[in-house]
Amino acid sequence: MRYIRYAFLAVLAIALLSVALANRGMVTLQLLPSGLSEMAGMNRSIELPLFIVIFGGIIAGLLIGFVWEWLREHKHRAAAAQRGAEVKKLERELRRTKAERDKDKDEVLALLDEAS
Known about the structure:
Blueprint: H1 2-22, E1 26-30, H2 34-40, E2 45-49, H3 50-72, H4 74-101, H5 107-115
Antiparallel strand pairs: 1-2
């Protein structure tokens, strides 16, 4: 399984490298469309190779997706934490009940009951 993972990563690296080499041309990125940037007085632009724009878009999309999923699954994590706290509370109550039940028993019999 480890070799399959390494082979997949090697193929992925070769594919990304070929995309980067094929898209080395410079492109101009602007913060806002030209009409809107003139109204706002912010004529910001930067020149980057196209592969950086492509990879930046992929990374930004992944990060947005991860954050979106983390926020979406918040209710499930909260419910699991609540159930975990309830389980701990019930386990403490069970231990306390067993201790009260076994307080008059012989120690050896109490240990045997606890083990079974």
